[in-house]
Amino acid sequence: MAISLDEVRHVAKLARLDLQESEVMSLQTELNALLGHFSDIQALSLHDLEPILHASNLVNVWSDDFVAPSLRRESALKNAPVSKAGLFLVPMIIED
Amino acid sequence: MITSLTAAEIATKLRTKELSAPEVTQAYLDRIASEDEKYGAFLAIDGERAMAQANEAQKQLDAGTATALTGVPVAIKDNISTEGIETTCASKILKGYIPPYDATVIRKLSEAGAITIGKTNLDEFAMGSSTETSAFKLSRNPWDTSRTPGGSSGGSTVAVAANMAPVSLGSDTGGSIRLPASFCGVVGFKPTYGRCSRFGLVAFASSLDQIGPLAKTVEDAAIISNVITGHCSQDSTSIPDSQISISDLKKGSLKGMKLAFPKEMYGDGTDPAVREATEFALDELRREGVEITEISIPTIPLGVTTYYIIAPAEASSNLGRFDGVRYGPRSEGQGHIDVVAKTRADGFGHEVKARIMIGTYALSAGYYDAFYLRAQQVRAMMTQQFNDAFKEFDLVVSPTAPVVAFPLGAMSQDPMQLKLLDYCTIPANMGGFPAISLQAGFAHGLPVGLQLMGPQMGDEKLLQAAFAVERVFETQRKSPPIP
């Protein structure tokens, strides 16, 4: 299983990474090296084995429903690169 | 010298008034100021704030309300949120980020009167095993400054090994506490998954991440664990507290203890000198009455592959939040999606991009069953095999790492070689098991760590055994050649 340059570009698009062409090339080499190592689990026969998603044995953890103070708006906005009128400001998404 | 004391010794001297809290904090701040240029352990220091905390701690000491950590400085890995102190994860994408809240472990440390002495260097977002992927600086091993301290909690480990903090916090996703502990000859403890709240730990791979201490002694590791563990309503995977008895810790005996040594723990990449040092250490334990049985856990060699599917998959999702909207710098672009993609391309370093890419690929349509699902099946099988071993044996023992600390830059050309460093540590994260690394010998003049692993929730028994093992190696224990 090998990954093509076009696939690298496609995955980068899914991951929202605007990669330089040189990075696309080097990542292709690295990903293929890693995929080569992944072959050790491809060969196993695992059909019915139940996968585990977590090391935790907890199920259905409930917490009490109560009103408590949360982060203040100005604290939440303090690290934003751009904010306006108490809101995070993002580039326009819908054209007028 | 104050800075060569253990946390337990400092706490005692503070209570007997032999030392004062401001004096202790000042001694560490002075040492960091004079020595850290050589070691590169710290990313941020807030001396004023630390001294203010020390003055508060002294009030508690004077009032007789001190706890086991009151007035003791603690260094914090820079992926753990500290209100008011820059927290970057050693990434340009979080440069300038000042958390508006404390991580639960930080809140607990503050409530116990501990002093936050500074934030320490790490591999960017904890992704690496040598602290070399940090966007800001290299950290150096106090045993030989031309070598890596290991990673990803390299800065926290160096801080302890070079006497710039008596104890520190790290995080461990695939070995990031235990590997640097092994390379720097200190104690590194990863508690059972869920024992420490992850609230405020910047998420890497949520099903594997666990906060834990780095320390000079097992006793110090236990003292700090007792403060930071416990259920927290903001992390639903955190489990109810069960304190480790420090007095019972010291009563543990090795006689009749049954340890399992999985033969697969010597992988292809094991340095023969590390193997020799490990065998020597195991023989010493046998002489103390420990029964060590060689067993087979066939899934161990699949750990690295499994990890490099599961961890990047979770990371690709967790790191989606870095989009230049709520924190971090924002790059220029045409429209929202382009701004996000350029912000992330400019802000993340190469290793982080590589892991986001592999994770996105492994989760994408058509590949999910082949990679992610299979990896989770192998994870289930590995966990079962370890659980079976724990039915028959008290603990599992192995080297912590297949090699000793290597020269900085030596593995940058071979990313796969670097990934194999976590070969022996990954299984504990996969199964959520507690595990600890202790200095237990030397190879090439550098420390070799011995790893002990216990069943889930077996932290107390594990630390008792570790305390007894530590005493066996006490006479041959060495400290790095630091001023």
Describe the structure.
The complex is a heterodimer of chains A (96) and B (483). Chain A is 39% helix and 4% strand. Chain A has a domain at 5-42. Chain A has helices at 5-14, 21-42, 73-77, and strands at residues 83-84, 87-88. Chain A starts with a helix and ends in an 8-residue tail after the last strand. A two-stranded antiparallel sheet of chain A has the order 1-2. Chain B has 483 residues and is α/β, with parallel strands linked by helices. Chain B has a single domain, classed as Amidase signature (AS) domain (Amidase signature (AS) enzymes). In chain B, 39% of the residues lie in helices and 13% in strands. Chain B is built from 16 helices and 11 strands. Chain B has helices at 7-15, 21-39, 47-63, 104-111, 154-161, 178-184, 218-228, 246-249, 272-287, 303-318, 336-347, 350-363, 369-392, 415-419, 426-431, 459-472, and strands at residues 42-44, 73-77, 115-120, 167-172, 187-190, 210-215, 258-262, 291-295, 395-399, 435-443, 446-453. In chain B, strands 1-3-2-4-6-5-10-11-9-7-8 form an 11-stranded mixed β-sheet, sandwiched between helices. In chain B, helix 2 runs antiparallel to helix 3 (47-63), helix 10 (303-318) crosses helix 12 and helix 10 packs across helix 13. The termini of chain B are close together. Chains A and B meet through helix 1 and helix 2 of A and helix 10, helix 11, helix 12, helix 13 and helix 15 of B.
